[in-house]
Amino acid sequence: MIGTVGTLDKQPGETKVARVSFADWLADHGDTIASVTATPSSNALVIEEVDHAAGIVSVFISGGVHKGTYKVTIKVTTARAPTPLVEEAEVVVKVKES
Questions:
Q1: Across the strands, what pairs with 70?
Q2: What is the spatial distance between Cα 90 and Cα 66, in angstroms, rounded to a whole number?
Q3: Cα(20)–Cα(38) distance, integer angstroms
Q4: Is 76 exposed, middle or buried (0-12, 13-18, 19+ CB in 10 A)?
Q5: What is the spatial distance between Cα 10 and Cα 13, in angstroms, rounded to a whole number?
Q6: How far apart are CA 91 and CA 98, in angstroms?
Q7: Given a cut of 70, is residue 1 above it in pLDDT?
Q8: Which carries the bigger pLDDT value, residue 5 or residue 45?
Q9: Where are the beta strands (DSSP E) in the chain?
Q10: Could you state, in order of their start, the residue ranges of all structural domains in the chain?
Q11: What is the DSSP letter of 84?
Q12: Distance of CA 42 to CAs 16, 27, 63, Å?
């Protein structure tokens, strides 16, 4: 697992983008991304969209409750056949009303 890669600060009404690079890991394995998912630690946080390009995963995040701290687990599955590789990273999301 790549581990916790950063913190995203947001207000409850904002939608923000967390970007995580898997490019070096993919290059080390000579592979590409076949699929990606993002799962929040709570239903209070909403994953609006997940996409990827050139080994960079973008996760569009909304919601959350004031003073809430959440984790979003990003899971990448590669195109490797017959057995794809799987790697995970986490982003911590801190929600605070200003």
A1: 93
A2: 20
A3: 11
A4: buried
A5: 8
A6: 21
A7: no
A8: 45
A9: 3-10, 16-21, 33-40, 45-53, 56-63, 69-78, 86-95
A10: 3-95
A11: -
A12: 17, 32, 10
Strand order through the sheet with 3-10: 3-10, 86-95, 69-78, 33-40
Class (C level, CATH) for 3-95? mainly beta
For tokens 């990606």, name the residue.
36
The pLDDT value given to residue 70: 98
Q: Please write the tens of the pLDDT for every residue from 45-95.
A: 999 999 999 999 999 999 999 999 999 999 999 999 999 999 999 999 999
What the block records as the tokens of 11 is 């207000």
Q: How many residues are present in the chain?
A: 98
CA distance 85 to 69: 29
* Residue, of 54 and 1, whose pLDDT is higher: 54
Cis peptide before 82 (omega within 30 of 0): yes
